[in-house]
Amino acid sequence: MDETRTLTGLPLEDQREIQEIFAGTLLPPLYSDVIAKRILSADVHPERLNFLMRAIAQDPTIDVGSSAANELFRQSVHSKGMVLDIPAWLKDRRFTNLEIQKVRQEHILTRAELYASDMLLLQYSTQSGERKSDVTASNLKEVLLIVLMVESPLSFREFDKTSERYIHRFTHNIADSGFSDPSKANVILVQLDKCLAQFKVGRNAEAVDGKPDNLQTWLAMIADPNDAQVSAAAILNSDLLQIRREARNMVQDKEVQHMLIQERYERMDWLSYGEQNKAEGIAVGRTEGIAEGIVLRDRQKIEAMLRKGRTPSEIRDFGEYPMDLIAEVQNEILKAK
């Protein structure tokens, strides 16, 4: 951690927001690492994780046993500024992870599949006191990955044009023949921004029989705890009110303040890293496109000269074209006849 990264080095908008958070007039982002890993700790507040995961997965059997923070596979060094993980073992020994994507990721489904595969591999390995013969394909317990997306990827925004649903449960493998089989790696993606937008206009596409849904209020508060409508609803819920008080008290700690500032820098680093890759990709694409254009132009000139009766040697000498390219074009002409 770079100790020289102080508040004054951040953009003015970030400085003002953090100053308001420290003054207590704003709540910190609840998906901040230092905040979320306390208020949603599997060891300190398993009841909160239980509520969220049971409601999102629609699985009342979920019962958090302990944190699994030390058992995750190492992720990219650039991911800390964009991803928060809260892994846990359930009491029935299922492996779960509540993940929050802090910034938009366009390939979120691919990443979720890869991560769920890692989780399943860990689930398949033997735990303390187990023999390898105790864990088989027939008795392997499923894993659960829940991803809360603060900002929906473009592919989901396209889907939004045809559906109001914001929770997407991938629980079965389905073949084009119609055959379906439960998956051992269950992935659930939640669009927090879409949930919040519906909450603010009094709609909830995930409500059952139009009944009030505490889950929507929880998700809306994770998305934006400082929204006026969210705040008004949250203070009427004793659990959410307690979370808000805890978060406000936490930011009075100097170490927590320092960590919040560092997280802003990590986010800036990630966004800068993404923009750099984007710029490099455009530059590479432009260079490759120019190179492809030159080759295409050369092929067209070679073809024109061959059709006029020029020999390969004459063409080589005329334009200093490589003989293998001339031969390739000549073969294509012969095949086309």
Please outline the helices and strands.
Blueprint: H1 12-23, H2 33-39, H3 46-57, E1 64-67, E2 83-90, E3 95-101, H4 108-124, E4 143-149, H5 154-159, E5 167-174, E6 180-191, H6 192-200, H7 214-223, H8 228-234, H9 238-250, H10 254-307, H11 312-319, H12 323-336
Parallel strand pairs: 3-4, 4-6
Antiparallel strand pairs: 1-2, 2-3, 5-6
Helix pairs in contact: 6-7, 7-8, 10-12
- Number of β-strand runs: 6
Low-confidence stretches: 275-288
- Strand portion, in percent? 5-15%
Q: What number of domains?
A: 2
Return the average pLDDT rounded to an integer.
84
N-to-C SSE string, H for helix and E for strand: HHHEEEHEHEEHHHHHHH
Global geometry? extended
Number of helices: 12
Share of helix among residues?
40-55%
Largest sheet: 6 strands, mixed
- Whole-number radius of gyration? 27 Å
> What's the end-to-end separation, in Å?
68 Å
* Structural class label: alpha/beta
Strand order of the largest sheet: 1-2-3-4-6-5
